[in-house]
Amino acid sequence: MHLPAKAPQSPAVTARSPYEGGTREALAYCLRREHLRRTTRIAFVVGLLLTAVNQGAVILGGDASTLTWVRSAANFLIPFVVSNLGLLSGRGARSGPAPTVGSVDDEH
């Protein structure tokens, strides 16, 4: 009796959660010099553009209130947080080889 050959078994790919290891590990990862350099540049450029578009006239007109400055600060803080979350999610995606569709031969 001839049994069909089994397809080679690939190691199980377990996608690591980008937040695995807790907040302390995530902060340490985001605070690496090479990551901070990138995320702060992103936050600076996006923050400047958002502030110019959304509060520029008020600031240049001399009518900026405390709320205007709080909104301006948020224009820098939010892109910084988002770019760090992207950094963390990319870290999880790079933890192992991506599974490919049809990588295992299905015998029917």
Give a nutshell description of this structure.
The chain has 108 residues and is mostly helical. Helix content is 60%, strand content 0%. It has a domain at 22-93.
**DSSP strand count:** 0
Beta-strand content estimate: under 5%
Give the biggest beta sheet.
Answer: none
> Helix count?
3
> Which class of secondary structure composition applies to the elements?
mainly alpha
Give average pLDDT, whole number. 81
Question: Helix content range of the residues, please?
Answer: 55-70%
What coarse outline follows from CA principal-axis ratios?
elongated
Cα radius of gyration in angstroms: 23 Å
The residue ranges in which pLDDT falls below 50 over 5 or more consecutive positions are none
Order of helices and strands: HHH
How far apart are the first and last residues' alpha carbons, in Å? 18 Å
